[in-house]
């Protein structure tokens, strides 16, 4: 029985897993607290985590029908993420494990995103290529085994979800605008305006989204308010198309060059309807399998941290009592 | 009635084990910015050398600051999680109050004006005035967050007679405060500039109880509002890694 805690960004999350069955997954989203700032304020996020953490843990135990002393292991995200936010989760997880005499596992947030694919429905089996795309990361990772990762590509500037959110903001949509942009784009024509696809060269699996964002800024400025008002849906569709194209093209060509027969998605951008449609189309065409976990497992959650922890050893006691959090950390090597 | 008290408001982390009016054991160490790494190992050390088990614990008291935000969050999150996992009550107790209680407990005048101050960085201190009467203290001002200059002005206006001042907020500007007529800082080497968690132990006796229905009870006293200028859109975490040369 594993209790997992995740507080790397702006969602306070806890989950309980027993072998292969996920018993509970609680996510307390802070989005509304950050909406008025138009972004995540680290200090606000840290304060909210501390306010919510015990209640969220309690709720995950109650929903799972488990007493805290039945937990054999506590798993927690140690990074990457906002340091003040991570501190709250790690301090809480360590103190709970210490108090009940449970084991402790420190989990990489990115490894967690990958491990969302090991949860039902239809758990995936490595090897596969995983595209992690969210407001906080954009990585292409070849997963050879549960504990074996190779980073194939990553963004050189903004994350994909961040590019969508920033585009939405330029189009006058409220933060976080990714979902609203998706809705607006669905009634527009993608070919209406041409936006650049970053690093669009064969064999380059890195991403760049700062160019397309800047292009949108100048496009809107030059087009003028009347035209923008009239063709907002078309502009949104064209912009989203550029971001999604970069993700789809690079993911599919990376899979082909690796001879990889399976692609898995992770991260909040997996909810984007255009990304899902395009990727499904391209995968069908090439006989590549595609797994997209349900939306609640794609966005940040603790179930994925619990899932990853199943494949990790317990850290040695009492050494883990001095475990810290790392704002900048990648896949374990 | 075994109680654990933790204070992480300053760079010196303080832990005490005891009952309401009796201290069994105490540890203080320089934690700097490593409260998360150093706190629990020290708690374990203390229980081990006392031959006590965590299960014997009945109460927890957490210093609520004001002080460094991340230090406070680590200490308070740890106390709250211990309380939750052991199903025992946790209380919040002012770190400025603990400082003042430490000075009030030592021999001195029957009636005195005290000022506890904790370094707030960015050229400011958190400070509060107390009135000592028969070793008891009572706050007589709000908690201020001011520059040393502004604080001297406030104290000069508010207090009758010189105020005995202490805490790392006083230490950081000792020379400056020593020059003010209304303020009499304790000498720099005086131990009472440090917050002692032992002075939180009496707090572990009040009637409030933290439980499942009552989660957010113990929180830091921040005083300062979050800095909204520090808004970040989430620049890719992997970029962060590369910039620091950690990943590829
Ligand atoms: Zn994430």
Order of helices and strands of chain A: EEEHHEHEHEEEHHHHHEHEHH
The CATH architecture of the largest domain in chain B can be given as 2-Layer Sandwich
Biggest interface between chains: A-B, 66 and 50 residues
Ligand names: zinc ion
| Poorly predicted tracts of residues of chain B | 209-215, 231-248
Going by helix content, strand content and strand pairing, the class of chain B is alpha/beta
Sketch the topology of chain B as an H/E string, one letter per element: EEEHEHEHEEEEHEHHEH
The CATH fourth-level homologous superfamily of the largest domain in chain B? ATPase, nucleotide binding domain
Which value, in Å, is the CA radius of gyration of chain B? 19 Å
Report the total helices of chain B: 7
Low-confidence blocks of residues of chain A: none
Number of helices of chain A: 12
Largest sheet properties of chain A: 5 strands, mixed
| CATH topology (fold) name of the largest domain in chain B | Nucleotidyltransferase, domain 5
The level 1 CATH classification of the largest domain in chain B is Alpha Beta
Can you give a write-up of this model?
With 333 residues, chain A is α/β, with parallel strands linked by helices. In chain A, β6 and β7 form a beta hairpin. Chain A has a five-stranded mixed β-sheet, with helices on both faces. Chain A starts with a strand and ends in a 24-residue tail after the last helix. By secondary structure, chain B is of the alpha/beta class. Chain B is built from seven helices and eleven strands. In chain B, a hairpin with a 2-residue loop joins β2 and β3. The C terminus of chain B is likely disordered. Bound molecules: zinc ion. The site of zinc ion has 6 residues of chain A, from α4. Zinc ion binds next to α4 of chain A.
């Amino acid at each position: 029985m594993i209790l997992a805690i995740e507080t790397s960004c702006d969602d306070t999350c806890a989950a309980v897993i027993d072998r292969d069955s996920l018993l509970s997954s609680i996510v307390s989203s802070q989005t509304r607290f950050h909406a008025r700032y138009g972004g995540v304020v680290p200090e606000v996020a840290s304060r909210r985590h501390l306010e919510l953490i015990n209640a969220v843990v309690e709720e995950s135990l109650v929903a799972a029908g488990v007493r805290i002393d039945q937990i054999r292991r506590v798993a927690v995200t140690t990074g990457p993420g906002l340091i003040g936010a991570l501190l709250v989760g790690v301090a809480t997880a360590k103190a709970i494990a210490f108090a009940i005499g449970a084991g402790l596992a420190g989990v990489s947030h990115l490894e967690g995103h990958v491990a969302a694919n090991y949860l039902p429905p239809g758990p995936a089996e490595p090897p596969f290529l995983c595209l992690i795309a969210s407001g906080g990361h954009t990585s292409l990772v070849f997963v050879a085994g549960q504990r074996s990762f190779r980073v194939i590509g990553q963004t050189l500037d903004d994350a994909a979800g961040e590019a969508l959110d920033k585009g939405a903001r330029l189009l006058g949509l409220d933060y976080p605008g990714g979902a609203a942009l998706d809705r607006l784009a669905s009634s527009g024509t993608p070919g209406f305006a041409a936006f650049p696809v970053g690093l669009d060269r064969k064999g380059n699996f890195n991403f760049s989204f700062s160019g397309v964002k800047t292009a949108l800024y100048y496009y809107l400025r030059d087009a003028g308010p009347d035209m923008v008002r009239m063709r907002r849906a078309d502009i949104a569709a064209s912009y989203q198309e550029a971001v999604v194209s970069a993700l789809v093209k690079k993911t599919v060509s990376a899979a082909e060059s690796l001879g990889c027969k399976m692609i898995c998605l992770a991260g909040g951008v997996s909810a984007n309807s255009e990304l899902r449609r395009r990727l499904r189309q391209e995968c069908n065409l090439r006989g590549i399998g595609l797994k997209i976990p349900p939306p609640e497992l794609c966005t940040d959650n603790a179930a994925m941290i619990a899932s990853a922890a199943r494949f990790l050893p317990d850290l040695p006691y009492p050494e883990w009592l001095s475990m810290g959090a790392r704002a900048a950390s990648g896949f374990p090597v | 009635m075994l109680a654990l008290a933790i204070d992480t408001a300053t760079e010196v982390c303080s832990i005490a084990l005891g009952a309401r009016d009796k201290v069994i054991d105490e540890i203080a160490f320089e934690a700097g910015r490593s409260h998360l790494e150093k706190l629990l190992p020290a708690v374990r050390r203390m229980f081990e050398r006392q031959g006590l088990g965590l299960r014997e614990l009945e109460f927890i008291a957490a210093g609520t600051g004001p002080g460094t935000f991340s230090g406070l969050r680590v200490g308070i999150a740890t106390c709250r999680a211990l309380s939750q996992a052991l199903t025992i009550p946790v209380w919040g107790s002012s770190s400025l109050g603990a400082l003042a209680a430490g000075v009030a407990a030592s021999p001195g005048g029957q009636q005195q004006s005290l000022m506890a101050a904790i370094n707030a960085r960015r050229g400011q201190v958190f400070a509060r005035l107390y009135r000592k009467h028969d070793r008891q203290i009572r706050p007589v001002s709000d908690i201020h967050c001011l520059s040393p200059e502004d604080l001297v002005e406030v104290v000069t206006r508010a207090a009758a007679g010189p105020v005995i001042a202490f805490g790392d907020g006083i230490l950081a500007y000792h020379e400056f405060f020593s020059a003010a007529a209304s303020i009499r800082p304790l000498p720099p080497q005086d131990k009472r500039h440090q917050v002692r968690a032992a002075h939180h132990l009496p707090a572990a006796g009040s009637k409030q109880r933290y439980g499942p229905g009552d989660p957010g009870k113990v929180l830091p006293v921040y005083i300062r509002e979050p800095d909204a200028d520090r808004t970040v859109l989430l620049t890719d975490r992997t970029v962060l890694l590369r910039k620091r040369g950690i990943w590829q």
